[in-house]
Design goal:
Strand order of the largest sheet: 6-5-4-3-11-1-12-13-2-14
Radius of gyration: 24 Å
Shape: globular
CATH class of the largest domain: Alpha Beta
Bound molecules: 2-acetamido-2-deoxy-6-O-sulfo-beta-D-galactopyranose, calcium ion
Number of domains: 2
Number of strands: 18
Strand content: 15-25%
Helix content: 25-40%
Distance between the termini: 76 Å
CATH superfamily of the largest domain: Alkaline Phosphatase, subunit A
């Protein structure tokens, strides 16, 4: 049939109207706490079953050079949500549980950017970026909270499982609070009647004893950091926390299936205290630390199943990554050091160091992306990826303009999710703002500049880390060399044992210049050269 030009135009217009606008992808960010590169089966763990994350990797792309921005939680999460390196700002180190919110309402954030594009934006789990303005009153609606920086829904713990207040906060209100039993929090003094958890008699009664710190408030048989009074009906239960968070995540997906959504699922696994549901006990030979990884994998399984159930799996980009590298003893006697040693488990895989460390184990973490039909399935990619880019990448994939995240620190690495290239360099940092920079082959760490501490002091100061730094010989070498510049060939020496700075002066100069260029854009305080 021949159509007159007018009729042809009309039928094209009709066809266009009938074609529904392509819905941008839902985005689910599965964020774990203190889970290392080597803790997942798909990254080589032999004694921790992680079938759900392994399936995600098999259906998507597994990155071998994916980084969080910092070796501790608060700065990594600050960077993840703002797209700005935390070392540029003062006050972005690990926060106490009563800290005020460090992401100021009105600044560009990942959730605000997606909300502007019509996304429902939810955060469930660990927050640790402070709450409230000048001060926080836990007995009133709390503002600012995540809902003031772009999240349309929030169900969070204020800080960490080992810090008070040990309650959940939903959309700015403490869940289950009895107004007749108001909450008071102090990071300075105990309240009258608080038990002395440093006494042997009180320690003997604990569900899990502490090894350092964690001897202030007693909640659910476990010592915490900081003291707290009241709020008895609102106290969380460590054993059911994982289930509560997974329930809330699934409910958010179900409630928002009609429009594009972004879910930031910030699991508490496997941060201390590693007190989880008894059904996980003994699932690994590693004790609570390994069992907690299994608990996280189960939560991932539930969220993936919910996406399937709602018919959303196809058009959802799921990304898994972690806030910092692994740690064994992080303040509780949960047998992590002994059990890991006995089982020969390497939580940081082939790397040295872990949480708190500028070595690879500190910030090189698992990074998996699945977006059916877009991310190549079953691929392993060595593209350099950093969480600093996720605000730009997600904004781009949601159909927006990522420009505001590209001005300072972000790079549009969205092509890497579909088989393309990643970053040219990646910067990592530690709590003390030691920085490092790596490219495809080399990693440069400027000297920390301080005189080397005596071996015993170094070992003591890095107590939680020692087991991940290697042999005494490794420790001694790190202590000797860390005052000066260090350069490692990550391809030949992933464990960073052989400092080749002296033989490669031009590589050192090039990477130092790149790092200096970034620092020149603004730093909170002078950083080590
Ligand atoms: C440390 C805690 C550690 C953990 C960490 C924060 C002590 C002795 N150590 O100060 O247990 O809470 O802070 O971890 O209290 S993070 O993953 O949130 O960065
Ligand atoms: Ca962490």
């Amino acid at each position: 049939m021949r159509l007159t030009p007018l009729l042809a135009l009309f039928s094209v217009a009709l066809a266009c109207a009938a074609e529904p606008a392509k819905r941008p992808p839902n985005i689910v960010l599965l964020y774990s706490d203190d889970i290392g590169w080597g803790d997942l089966g798909c990254y080589g763990a032999k004694v921790i079953p992680t079938p759900n994350l392994d399936r995600l990797a098999a259906q998507g792309t597994r990155f071998t050079a994916g980084y969080c921005t910092s070796a501790t939680c608060t700065p990594s999460r600050y960077s993840l949500l703002t797209g700005e390196y935390a070392w540029r700002r003062q006050g972005t180190g690990v926060l106490p549980g009563d800290a005020n919110m460090i992401i100021k309402p009105g600044r560009p954030t990942l959730p605000a950017s997606l909300a502007k594009l019509g996304y429902a934006t939810g955060v469930v789990g660990k927050w640790h970026l402070g709450l409230g303005g000048e001060s926080v009153d836990w007995n009133k609606p709390i503002s600012p909270c995540p809902n003031q920086i772009g999240f349309s829904y929030s169900y969070i713990m204020a800080a960490t499982g080992d810090r008070v207040p040990t309650v959940f906060v939903e959309d700015g209100t403490v869940v289950g609070l009895d107004p007749k039993d108001p909450i008071e929090v102090s990071y300075k003094n105990p309240f009258p009647g608080d038990p002395d958890l440093t006494s042997a008699a009180e320690r003997a009664k604990l569900k899990m004893d502490w090894s350092h710190g964690h001897n202030m408030a007693l909640v659910n048989g476990v010592g915490r950091i900081g003291w707290m009074k009241g709020g008895k009906a609102a106290l969380w239960n460590d054993e059911t926390m994982g289930d509560v968070f997974a329930d809330k995540a699934c409910a958010f997906i179900a409630a928002n299936k009609a429009k594009p959504f972004f879910l930031y699922y910030a699991s508490h696994e496997n941060h201390v205290p590693r007190v989880h549901n008894p059904r996980y006990a003994g699932r690994t030979p590693l004790g609570p630390r390994g069992d907690a990884v299994v608990a996280f994998d189960d939560q991932v399984g539930r969220i993936l199943a919910e996406l399937e159930k709602q018919g959303l799996a196809e058009n959802t980009l799921v990304i898994y990554t972690s806030d910092n590298g692994p740690v064994l003893d992080d303040g509780y006697k949960d047998q992590a050091v002994e059990r890991n040693k006995a089982a020969g488990h390497l939580p940081a895989g082939p790397f040295r160091g872990g949480k708190y460390s500028i070595l690879e184990g500190g910030t090189r973490v698992g990074f998996i992306a699945r977006w059916p039909g877009r991310t190549p399935a079953g691929q392993v990619s060595d593209a350099l990826m950093s969480q600093i880019d996720l605000p730009a990448v997600f904004t781009k994939l949601a159909g927006g303009d990522p420009a505001e995240f590209l001005k300072l620190d972000g790079v549009d690495t969205s092509a890497a999710l579909t088989g393309g290239a990643g970053r040219e360099t990646v910067i990592s940092s530690t709590q003390g703002n030691t920085l490092s920079i790596r490219d495809a082959r080399w990693k440069f760490i400027p000297g920390v500049g301080a005189p080397a501490k005596a071996k015993n002091t170094a070992a003591k100061a890095t107590g939680p880390l020692v087991a991940l730094l290697g042999s005494d010989e490794d420790l001694e070498r790190d202590r000797r060399e860390q005052t000066g510049p260090r350069l490692f060939d990550l391809l030949a020496d992933p464990a960073e044992r052989k400092n080749v700075a002296a033989e490669n002066a031009e590589v050192v100069a090039r990477l130092r210049a790149k790092l200096d260029e970034q620092k020149a854009k603004g730093v909170a305080q002078p950083l080590p050269r």
